[in-house]
Write a structure and sequence with these properties.
The complex is a heterodimer of chains A (about 270) and B (about 260).
Chain A (H helix, E strand, L loop, with lengths): L1 H18 L2 H28 L6 H31 L3 H5 L5 H29 L12 H26 L4 H4 L2 H9 L10 H7 L3 H13 L6 H32 L1 H6 L5
Helix pairs in contact in A: 1-5, 2-3, 2-5, 3-5, 3-6, 3-10, 6-10, 6-11, 10-11
Chain B lengths: L16 E12 L2 E12 L3 E5 L6 H8 L7 E6 L2 E2 L4 H6 L1 E5 L10 H11 L5 H11 L15 H13 L5 E5 L7 H18 L2 E5 L3 H7 L2 E6 L2 E6 L4 H4 L5 H10 L8
Parallel strand pairs in B: 3-8, 3-9, 6-7, 7-8
Antiparallel strand pairs in B: 1-2, 1-4, 4-5, 9-10
Chain lengths: ~270, ~260
């Protein structure tokens, strides 16, 4: 009960922040909406000029929706963490009975809430305005979202660990991580398009399996559940590694005095 | 003047300790920020941790709060070792420090609710109302902490520090930004809290009048070591000084001329 209560305190703090600040809530909806509108019109244009019979909507618009969902999950964790960096709150938090597991749990629950809002926005826009039907993907949509969610959590925790290790300025490394990964994740094209060395890197990324699967299903081909299971296992492995990394860096920060100096201006 | 408490047993070595520090040492490279110090804080006792800048006061407080690992030594809060039983130790502890303000983007009430939840406070709503009343924060309950004056922020930090009715309270210059009248009120409130709940307090301050007024015992630190220890009223005379402030200056300028009594 006590661990749950402390995790709930972290979520409550994030809820208060969002409730009191529209500028924090707006990006949850705005960026994903802009992406869906932009890519929705691009797919319409491509459908108009391309040879009949191929529908770009489930391939491109579906891909951007899933990729944005992954990005929102990752940013959901890292933004919640950065709120504590920006408000110099580490000393108050880590001098309390709160454990690292409870703290990271609070960040993850916050991300679930914010990314779910973003997903709902995207789904509503993509289906009502641009005619994207999720029936195309069938039940595989659930494991697709699950794999992307797990990998987003892993990257969010890892990027938070980076900021804890290298200081507040390193947030600028965190923001472009999804953009850096997207060429390797084969969001818009098959993995076979990539040169061999990039293909090897691509198969280390769980989203690659999701987007390959999505394209296979849309083109009427089969996609083996075991392949998706492999990507889910890979994503879980990354969560374990990211959590280990965060715990190690926190431990290092306590040992070296970095955590105390994150807030304390003096060591009088 | 707040008037120092005269409760029997204060400072007595046989009274139960809420804080026990043994052979605490913290090295940064080859430099010892804290160099093998031992001390205790008893129930209902206010201990002043004094010393010039760089003496190791904040380093000691950070180690007691578990945010800085000692190189060696042990810290026990009501018997719970901070290294082995961190959660149990910190559930009974709280702190207020000028360098750790509460998040400015939450209101007073929101901050107290978040930290009350974190510390597992029972009847949290009632506890928050009592603290708002005690620290004259009722009219500021919906104000964001970032827009409060430094004195108001200090009062909010103190309210947070007392929200879990800690057994050990660490106060790092708690009245530094308060005007004398408010500072006097705050000292009185801390006194009442300590007397009523038999809390142990470790208090750092550069205001020697305040220290003489509130502390039952003082520890003078210099270069990570306890140089002097004793009653703040008697200690200056024992070293040929008139006031605690004179003694502080002597410790800061010529620590080698003084030795622990």
């Amino acid at each position: 009960m006590a661990p749950f209560r402390r995790t709930a305190a972290i979520v409550l703090r994030q809820f208060y922040l969002m409730r009191g600040s529209p500028v924090r809530v707006l990006p949850i909806f705005a960026w994903v909406a802009v992406d869906i509108v932009l890519w929705g019109f691009i797919t319409r244009y491509l459908n108009a000029i391309a040879s009949p019979g191929f529908d770009f909507v489930p391939v491109l618009l579906g891909a951007i929706l899933l990729w944005d969902f992954f990005t929102r999950v990752m940013h959901g964790v890292s933004i919640a963490f950065l709120e504590d960096v920006w408000s110099h709150n580490f000393l108050n938090l880590f001098a309390s009975p709160l454990s690292i597991r409870e703290y990271v749990g609070g960040l993850v629950f916050t991300s679930i809430a914010t990314s779910a809002l973003g997903l709902i926005t995207m789904v509503v826009l993509a289906t009502t305005v641009f005619g994207l039907s999720f029936f195309v993907y069938g039940l595989m949509l659930v494991p697709f979202l699950l794999v992307l969610f797990l990998f987003g959590i892993a990257l969010g925790v890892f990027s938070s660990a980076l900021v804890l290790r290298f200081g507040p300025a390193s947030e600028w490394i965190v923001w472009p991580i999804p953009a850096f990964l997207s060429p390797f994740a084969a969001v818009f094209y098959p993995v076979s398009t990539l040169p061999p060395w990039m293909q090897k890197a691509s198969w280390l990324l769980p989203p690659s399996y999701v987007f390959e699967g999505m394209r296979a299903i849309v083109s009427g081909g089969a996609y083996r559940g075991t392949t998706l299971l492999l990507s889910a296992c890979l994503a879980v492995l990354y969560i374990v590694l990211a959590s280990w990394c965060f715990t190690r860096i926190h431990r290092h920060a306590v040992r070296t005095g970095l955590l105390a100096r994150y807030s304390a201006e003096s060591t009088g | 003047m707040t008037g120092k408490r005269t409760s029997a047993g204060v400072g007595d070595s046989v009274m139960p300790k809420v804080l026990t520090v043994e052979q605490l040492r913290r090295l940064y490279g080859k430099t010892a920020a804290v160099d093998g110090i031992s001390f205790g804080v008893g129930q209902g006792e206010i201990v002043g941790l004094l010393g010039p800048n760089g003496a190791g006061k904040t380093t000691i407080i950070n180690m007691i709060l578990g945010v800085l690992e000692p190189t060696s030594g042990t810290i026990r809060i009501e018997g719970a070792d901070i290294a082995a039983s961190r959660v149990r130790a910190l559930e009974r502890t709280n702190f207020a420090a000028v360098y750790a303000p509460l998040p400015g983007n939450l209101t007073v009430c929101q901050n107290l609710r978040v930290f009350g939840l974190m510390y597992g406070v029972k009847d949290l709503g009632g506890r928050i109302e009592a603290l708002l009343e005690q620290f004259d924060l009722k009219r500021l309950r919906h104000a964001k902490c970032g827009v409060l004056s430094s004195g108001e922020q200090t009062r909010v930090s103190l309210a947070k520090a007392m929200i879990n009715r800690p057994r050990l309270l660490l106060l790092d210059e708690p009245t530094a930004s308060l005007d004398p009248a408010v500072a006097s009120d705050i000292r009185m409130q801390i006194h009442e809290f300590v007397s009523r709940d038999q809390v142990g307090v470790l208090w750092t301050s550069h205001n020697m009048h305040e220290v003489a007024d509130v502390c039952d015992r003082v520890l003078f630190l210099s270069r990570g070591r306890i140089l002097l220890e004793g009653d703040p009223g008697a200690l200056p005379r024992a070293h040929g000084m008139e006031t605690l402030e004179e003694l502080f200056i002597a410790v800061a300028r010529e620590p080698l001329a003084l030795r622990r009594t």
